[in-house]
Fold this sequence. Notes:
Blueprint: H1 2-17, E1 46-48, H2 52-60, H3 62-65, H4 79-95, E2 97-98, H5 101-105, E3 118-119, H6 121-134, E4 142-148, E5 154-162, E6 165-169, E7 177-178, E8 185-190, E9 197-199
Parallel strand pairs: 2-3
Antiparallel strand pairs: 1-9, 4-5, 4-8, 5-6, 6-7, 8-9
Amino acid sequence: MRYRNSLALGLLALAALLGVGAPGIPAQAQTLAALPAPTAAAAPVGEARPIIAWVAFCQAYAAECVLDRNEPARIALTPATWNTIVTINRRVNRSVRAMTDMEHHHVADRWDLAEDGIGDCEDFQLLKRHALAAAGLPRRAMRMTVVIDEKGEGHAVLTLITDRGDFVLDNKTSVVLPWHQTGYTFIKRESQDGVAWVSLGGVTSPVTTANR
Length: 212
């Protein structure tokens, strides 16, 4: 019941969000016609333990964690697809109010779809994936990813695995960057082959992704 109610609220929030204008960054920075240059992909190097809050998220929002191996493993980037990615990334960043889980829910780490319009890093990215999947992009090619950020803290981003390399959606910027240009240390991400996680070679794995 909690999942159905949460999903219904999430869809309502998403409908409202898609009516919001793009945030105030230069429109020419990333446009419909400007596909990104091809870049290197991040290479998984073995299995990894998932974030505990992700496990709880998958229990509450099971449909958000389903992995269909019949889906493409990479997004075929076209100008239209790139425009959809850039637009949804900006709109979610504009629409959700950043707040830590401790401030919001009085717990160290909780993953959800920001149904009340408030969330921290992983909630932004989960809502983006929800919206992109609804727009027709393969969920299998959109993997939640844990990094160490510029403050040395655990942080969550969404990695888009494409035919032009791996790109990152982040709530700290509305520019979609190649993974290796973010300045982050990449620790692990969801597997493309099952409901599990894989290591990206980072040495220190955070227990939570609890910052904004």
